[in-house]
Design a protein that fits this description.
Helix content: 25-40%
Shape: globular
Number of helices: 4
Structural class: alpha+beta
Order of helices and strands: EHEHHEEH
């Protein structure tokens, strides 16, 4: 993976603020709208259903988007993590 990848849905109410923060911080990423095509949805589901980072979201019946899949293979799910105001530190290298 050479760039970060943002998985999102244009129908998700959390997407707009998440994308605005990514743009504000100057993140370079590829965008994958999971509701745009079946191929995009399958790409996301393959990732979501094989990664333990999504387990808690699945338990809460959440889809798991928006999520930024970092090129170091970590994930950012929360806007507060992007802003650096949560208790969780995220390495974006």
């Amino acid at each position: 993976m050479t760039k970060h990848t943002l998985y999102f849905s244009d129908t998700c109410p959390d997407t707009k603020a998440f994308v605005e923060e990514l743009e504000r911080q100057g993140y370079d990423y590829d965008a994958v709208n999971i509701t745009e095509s079946m191929a995009n949805l399958k790409q996301f589901l393959k990732l979501r259903d094989t990664r333990p980072q999504f387990e808690e979201r699945k338990l809460w019946n959440m889809v798991g988007v928006p999520v930024l899949h970092l090129k170091n293979n970590n994930f950012i799910f929360e806007l507060n993590d992007l802003k650096g105001v949560s208790c969780t530190l995220t390495d974006t290298n």
